[in-house]
Amino acid sequence: MLNENKKNDNELNLENQNETIRVNLNLLDELMVYAGELVLARNQLMRLTTDLIKQIPGLSSVLQDVNLTTSILQEKIMNTRMQPISMVFSKFPRLVRDLQLKTNKKIRFDTSGNDVNLDKSVIENLYNPLAILVYYLINYDLESSQDRIKQGKDETAHITLKAYHEGGKVNVDINSDGLGLNPKIIIKKAIENGIISENESHRLSKKETINLLFTNDFFTFNAKLEEGDKEVSLQEARIILEKIGGTVNLDSETGKSTYINIKLPLTLVIIPSIIITVNKLNFAIPQVSLQEIVRIRKDDPEQKIENVNGAPVLRLRNKLLPILYLWKVLNMKEPKAFDDTTRILVLRHDDNEFGLVVDEIFDHEEIVVKTIPNFFKDTLCYSGTTIMGDGSVALILDVNGLSKKGKLNFVGLKEQVTVEESEEKIQQDIQNLLLFENDKDQFFALNLDLIKRIEKVNTKDIDKVGQKEYIEHEGKSLTVIRLENFLPISAPADEQENLYVIIPKAVENPIGIITRKIVDSISVNIKIDTESIISRGLIGSSLIDDKLVLFPDIYELIELAEPEKMQLYKIKNEKRRKMLLVEDTPFFRSLEKNYFESAGYDVEIAIDGMDGYKKAMSKDYDIFVVDLVMPRMDGYQFIENIRKNDKFKNIPALALTTLTSEESKEKAFKAGFNAYEIKLHKEKLISVIKNLLNTQGRTE
Amino acid sequence: MIQLTTFYVQDTLFGINILQVKEINNQMKYTPVPDSADYIKGLFNLRGQIITIFDLAKRLGREDTMIGDKTRNLILKTDQETTLIREQFDIPEIGNDAVGFIIDKIGDVIEIDEEMIQSAPANVGDISKEFIKGVFELKDELLIILNVNEAIKI
Q1: Is the pLDDT of residue A573 over 60?
Q2: What is the Cα–Cα distance from B6 to A215, expressed in whole angstroms?
Q3: Tell me: domain B2-151, CATH 1.10.150.390, correct?
Q4: What is the ipTM of this complex?
C-alpha cells in the first residue's frame, strides 16, 4: 500500500520533482516554537530600540532586516508543514476503478485543485472521510448504466473531486450526477429509525432533511478504508471532518445530482482569532465561530438585553439570541463597567447561535495554537492555549463548551434564518411564537416577527386618561390596551404589580398590549382554527401542548383601539423601498444590512459586483448601495456596467468605502455614483440615502 | 546516594529528586485560569512551553502563597524530558503537561543516602500522608520528600 501511494505521488509531481529529505515532525514542531519565540524577541527588541533609532545611524535598516527576516522565517517554517491535497486525491482513481469493476457501473472520475496545500495534520485525516463519501456516492447514488440510459442520462456517470480556496478556507467539493436524494424517503426512514419524530419532521427544511444522512447511524455500509474493510456510516465521515476543524454539507437535486461541500481549515496550528478580555484577562476566540459583533449602548432604545423566562436574550433582527456572560460562565467576579457599552460576540456552534458578553474586544490575530494542559479539561470552556505578542499566555475559548456550560437551551429560541428558508417554512406553517398568559390558563400567542420588543412595567407606571391607558416609552407616551377590553375573555381576577407590555413592529404609532406573564417563545408547526372562536381582533385559536391558545390580530386590535392610526401603518408598509446592497465582506454585510433594515428598507444582498450585476438585471431596485473594493467585479466596474443600461440611468447609487482619498471619490462619481460615503456612519448613511431617494424621485 | 533539591513551603522543608527538576526561576506573571482548581496558580510561557503552576501551599491545605522576594517557580521535567533517565533513577511518570510549583524559598541541594529515607508516618504536622513519599531527618529539621504525583492531581 505504502509503495503504491508513493508511486502515485511521483506520477503527479513529475513536473516539480524537487529534491526532498525526510525530517522528523518533532523537529519541525520545535522549529515552530523557536520561530515563535524569535518573533516575540523581535517584538521586544523593536519596542526597546524605538528611542535609539535617531541616535544610532544605520540601526533602523538593520532592525527592518531583522523584522522582515523573522517574519519570513516563521512563514517558511509554517509552510514546511503544508502538503498538497494531491497526496489524498491521488488515491482515489484507484478506488474508483476498483468500485467500478465491483458495481459494474461506468464512471468518469476527475479531480481538480491538486496543488491546494493543507496542513499535514489535516491531510493525514482526510482520506477516510472522503473515501466514505465516495463509496456512498458510487454504491448508492449512481444508477446502473442501463438505468441511466432509460432516464436519458449519459451512460457514463461522472464524479468530480475538486479543491479550491474560498473565504480563508480550503473547500473540497464532491459532485456526482446520480440519483440524488429524495427528502421524502429520508424523512420516512428517519422517523422509522426514531431519529426524528413525526412532529419534528415538519419543521425541517429540505437541506436539513438531506443532512440527516450525517446524523446517528442513519446509513451504514461497508467500505475499504486505510485500515481495511470496515462498516462505516456517513456520520463517521462528518465526525472525522469536524475533528480536524472542518464542516460538511450535503445538497441534492432529486433525480439529477448530489453535491457535497467540505470546508477545511488551512492549518490547525495557526488559526485566525479575535482577542477579547474579561476582568483584564485575555482570551482568544476562533474566528470561525464568530458571526458578528454587537455593541449596545446603555441608552439605546432599539437594542438591549432582555429577560425571557429568566434567561437573558438579545433581540437581534428576527431572532432571539440567548446571551451568556463570560464572567459568569467562568465563575469570575463581576467586571466593573468602564463605559456604557455592552459588547457582545455573536458566536455560532453547529446551527446554534448565542451571544457572549465580554469586556473589551481587540484586534483579530493569527494565533499559534498549543494544547490545553489536561488539568483544565474538566472545565469544558477551553480548547487550547496560545502565546500573545507580549509573551504572556492566553486561553482559547471553546465555543461549544461555553454553550454547554452555560446550559443554553436553544429549542425555544430557534432562529428564523434567511429569507429563502423562512419562506419555505411559512408554507409548512412553522411559526415562531411568543406565548403569553393574560390570566391564569388563558393563553395567547403572537408571531415573533410581529413583535418589536417586550417591556416590563409596574402598574403604577400606567397612566389613565379617560378610557385610555398610557405608559412612558422612549420618552413618548404609548397607548396600551388590555386584551379583555377588546376580546371575549374574562378580566384577570386580581391586579398584579408587575406587567409586561408587548410592542408590535412595523406600526408608525404603536400601541402596547398589556399582559401578565410571558410564558415562552416557541417554534411550532400549527394550524390555526379560524372557526371555533370568532371575534374581531382575533385571528383564531389553536391547541399547543394541549392548551387552548388564542391568536390576537394586532392590526385589527389597533384598529379597534385607535382607528385613526391604522392609516399610517398601511402607508408605511407600501412605501418600503428596495435596496440592493453589494458588499463582499461578511462582517460589513451583516452590519450594513442591519442598519438599513432598521431604517425601513427592504435589503437584498449581493456578495460582489458580479453577483450584484446579475441581481440588478433580474429585479427592480430603488437604490444601489455598493462597496468599492471587491473581488471579481469591483464597485466602479459595477456601476459603469449598470449605467450602460438605460433602465438604470436614474436609479440612485451610493458608494460605500473605507477609502478616503479625493482621488477615489472623484473616480466614484465619474463611474456613475451619486454619492460617496464612509462605512459605519450609520446616521449619515441613512440620511444620505433618504436624500438620494427623494431627489431622484423628483427628477423622474 | 541521591541528590535532592530542597525548598520551603512556609517553614516546612521539602525535597525533590534533582533529576526531576528542569529549572527554578522567578517569573511571577501568571495567566490565571478561571474556573479551575483553586490550587492552580496559573500558566506562564517558558520559552514557548506552557507551564501550569500549582500553588503547593494551597494544595497542601494551607493559605495561598504570598509572592515575596524569595518566591520562586520550581519547574519539573515532563515525561518526555525524563524518558532516558526515568528507569535508571526511579523517577515517577507525571505526564506530558509541563508543571511547576510556586514555593516560598529555595533551599540547598543535599545528598542523602536513599537507605536512610523513612516511609511516611500518618502525617507530618498539617501535611497529610498522601503527599509524603518519605521523610529524612536532617540535623535540625525534618525533610519531607514530596509525592509529586499527588501534588499535581486534579
Answers
A1: no
A2: 57
A3: no
A4: 0.92
